[in-house]
Every structure is written in C-alpha cells, then in structure tokens.
C-alpha cells in the first residue's frame, strides 16, 4: 500500500513540475527535469519505506511528511528557475510542522526556540556573507526547523551546507555564466534525508 502511495506521489510530482515549468522549458532542459522528477520519486519512496519499517509511526505523519516533500519539491523548482522561494510555501511548511509536532506530542516552546535560533544563525550568515543567503532561504529554514529537534536542526545546517557546496561545484561547471547558486534544492534534499534516516538512529 505504501508503495502505491509512492507511485501516486511520483505522478503528483510530475504534474506539479508541469504546472510550474512551461512546456518550452521542459523541452530545452529535459535532462534537468527528469533528474528532478527522479529525485522526487526517490524521496517519496524513501518516506514510504520509512513508514513501512516503523521510522514513521502513523499514516497522519506520513501524509504530513508527503505534504512537506511536495512543498519542498515545488519550492526548490521555483528557486532553481526564478531564484525565489515563495512565502506561501514557508507558511504551509510551518503549519504542517506544528501539526506534525502536536501529533507526536512535541514541545511547542522548543519548536519556537528552534525556529528563532535557526533564523538568527542564518541571518548572521547572511550578514557576514553580505547577502549570500537569501531572505527566502531564511524563512524556509525557520519553517523547516518546526519539524525538527535541536540536534536535527544542527544536522540540517551541516548537511545542507555540504550538499550546497557539492551542488555549487556542479553548477559552476555546467553553468559558468551564472553567479547566483540557489540554496533551496540543497536544504530540501537535506531535510528529506533527515526524515528518511533520522539523526536519533545515527546516534
């Protein structure tokens, strides 16, 4: 059943990509589009596997995580194409995160503290890098922190930075004329990896 859900999620991912990207863009950038769809399907099947083996405890959490994955996929696609992360996505992630923590009996005060700490950290990086981190990135990272524990927030910072460095190296080689590297795909991938393989199980 969970893999049926994964297949439906994959089809939804294709549909969402089609709605976001014009057909002309898909024809001229077909390889990137196929890679994005493949990554979305892998993430969805990974979440279904995590549910099947007991990492995710109930169907409600799985549904919320799927909403998170689709929103991250949608936001990453927009960030990749237009260098902007919509505030609507951050709001949706934040609301779903609070519901997710409420279902799992999470500490609401700790959620707020995590979000503020995450915002302060990345705002400092924005200041030191003179605008190297976008405001949209900060808002989305604060929203994502509503889903995570304090340790997972630190892991998200490190993992997304490593993925971002690797991604920027590939981006520089394939698109040397571009000076701005979107960070949305990096922290989106890191977030899904944290839910497929939680930090608590590493420790």
Tell me the helix content.
over 70%
Global geometry: globular
Distance between the termini: 30 Å
N-to-C order of helices and strands: HHHHHHHHHH
- Derived structural class: mainly alpha
Described by strand count, sense and barrel closure, the largest sheet is: none
Q: Could you give the count of β-strands?
A: 0
Mean pLDDT, to the nearest integer, reads 79
Portion of residues in beta strands equals under 5%
Number of helices: 10
Rg is 17 Å
Q: What are the low-pLDDT stretches, counting only 5+ consecutive residues below 50?
A: none
Task: Tell me briefly what this model is.
By secondary structure, the protein is mainly alpha-helical. The protein contains 10 helices and no strands.
Provide an overview of this structure.
This protein is mainly α and 203 residues long. It has 10 helices and no strands. It has helices at 2-20, 23-28, 30-52, 59-82, 87-103, 108-128, 135-145, 150-174, 184-196, 199-202. Helix 4 packs antiparallel against helix 9 (184-196). The protein is globular.
Question: Which key features would you list for this structure?
Answer:
mainly alpha, globular, 203 residues, 10 helices
List the helices and strands and how they pair.
Elements: H1 2-20, H2 23-28, H3 30-52, H4 59-82, H5 87-103, H6 108-128, H7 135-145, H8 150-174, H9 184-196, H10 199-202
């Amino acid at each position: 059943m969970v893999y049926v859900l994964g297949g439906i999620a994959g089809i939804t991912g294709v549909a969402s990509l089609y709605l976001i990207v014009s057909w002309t863009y898909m024809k001229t950038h077909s390889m990137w589009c196929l890679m994005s769809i493949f990554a979305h399907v892998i993430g969805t099947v990974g979440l279904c596997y995590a549910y099947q083996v007991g990492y995710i405890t109930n169907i409600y959490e799985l549904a919320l995580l799927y909403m998170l994955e689709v929103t991250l996929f949608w936001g990453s696609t927009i960030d990749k194409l237009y260098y902007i992360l919509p505030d609507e996505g951050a709001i949706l992630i934040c609301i779903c995160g609070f519901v997710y923590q409420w279902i799992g009996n999470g500490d609401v005060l700790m959620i707020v503290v995590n979000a503020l700490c995450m915002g302060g950290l990345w705002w400092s990086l924005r200041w030191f890098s003179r605008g190297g981190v976008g405001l949209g990135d900060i808002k989305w990272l604060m929203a994502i922190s509503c889903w995570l524990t304090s340790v997972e927030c630190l892991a998200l910072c490190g993992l997304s930075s490593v993925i971002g460095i690797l991604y920027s190296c590939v981006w520089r080689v394939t698109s040397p004329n571009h000076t701005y590297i979107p960070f949305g795909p990096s922290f989106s991938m890191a977030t899904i990896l944290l839910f497929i393989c939680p930090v608590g199980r590493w420790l």
